[in-house]
Amino acid sequence: MRARGQEETDVDGREIAAAVAAEAAYMEDVLCRLVAVPTTLGNEEPGQEVMSEALREVGLDPVDVPLDEAMLRSHPAASPFSWDVSGKRNVVADWQPAGAGGRSLALNGHIDVVSAAAEGLWRTAPFSPSRDGDWLYGRGAGDMKGGLAVILGAVKALRGLGLAPLAPVQLQSVVEEECTGSGALQCAVSGLRADACVVTEPFPGALSISQVGVLWFHIDIAGLPAHAGDAQHGANAIEASFPIVAALRRLEAELNESPPVPYDAFDHPINLNVGVMRGGDWPSTVAAECTLSCRLALYPGQEVAWLQARVEQAVASATGAHPFLAAHPPRVRYDGFACAGTEIDVAHPLVTTLSASYAEIAGAPPELVPTTATSDARLFLQEGIPAVCFGPWAENVHAVDERVNIPSMITAAQVLALFVRDWCGLADAGGAT
Ligand SMILES: [Zn+2]
After folding, report:
1. How far apart are CA 55 and CA 51, in angstroms?
2. Structure confidence by residue, pLDDT tens digits, 288-326
3. How far is the CA of 242 from the centre of ligand 1 (A)?
4. Nearest to 252 by CA among 307, 210, 171
5. What is the pTM of this model?
6. Which residues fall inside 5 Å of ion ligand 1, going by CB?
7. E strand or H helix at 379, and its extent?
8. For residues 332 and 110, what is the distance between their CA atoms, to the nearest angstrom?
């Protein structure tokens, strides 16, 4: 029996690891419930209902952190968005401390997922979770409903041992990670002002210590419709996009010429993606309009406004000589990600403490890695809350047959539970819940 009270309890890591392992079936069950709801942009609410239910199962009281449009439109770290966010909510739950003197912690994951991309190519329906061996398949299984289940499993196990932290721990399920980061920003601004944040994105055996920024831009290209038989009297907006893409590829090549440390470890750290093209409306009509929606990355330290100017220059360079577009220049719009890269010092106590917790389970420290994608960790860092990503092993995120490795979820949850001990301190829960 542990002594009841507010004294820090030194709990053996093996006892915690065993308690977490005993929650494996629970974690998988929650994961399946989460994957079964297709929480694409604008459809996150059924997922938040599952998370509310799961937080109650863990013994916590979930509360809403609604998106505040006025704040999100005016905050310097926010990304622009053209859609309605009224009624959207993050779901958070505070795990109350049993004592004092520890460091507080936010455990964060996002509920939104990207679309299935090409449903017919999947081995099983993307929103019907299916297990095969050690792997659980489904859109969002890895990015990052597995991570949400890891948070729940770690906290459930510690609570089951009758333990509570010595500082507040807030569990957060946020919306809009895949398009703006508005959900995480709302939590960083109006959630727990935590001493650290762990985002359980799929970083197995690794902590993210640097991430690129990301810019979404949309290019509206005008054309002049004409009958295809008189095409020379029209201007084809779809074909006008080809030299624009070529100019953007030249910009991309330039951005990859001499990557700064630590991105010099990558062959091609900055990727342009022409993700969506919409244009024209009839095979026998010269296309009157075309819109390209693109994603381009930037290094930490570079300004979003600088990259926006470079994109606009590239578009202008491709259209200046075009007889129709010179008089009707394409419009570049910003809607979605417009965010800078972020870094955390590898000597930060969050990094060293989580590394030690990891090593206690895995026998060796994790890698400290840069990433060529963005994550919600940046919003916490930009708000002065130290943050890293660490989580289970996933494959094919944003692709077909996305999957998460179930044993790696258990390992990640064990590490996270030890980290709660090592970062916050643990005590007998006593009357605290
Ligand atoms: Zn993610």
Report:
1. 6
2. 999 999 999 999 999 999 999 999 999 999 988 788 989
3. 31
4. 307
5. 0.96
6. 143-144, 201
7. helix 377-382
8. 29
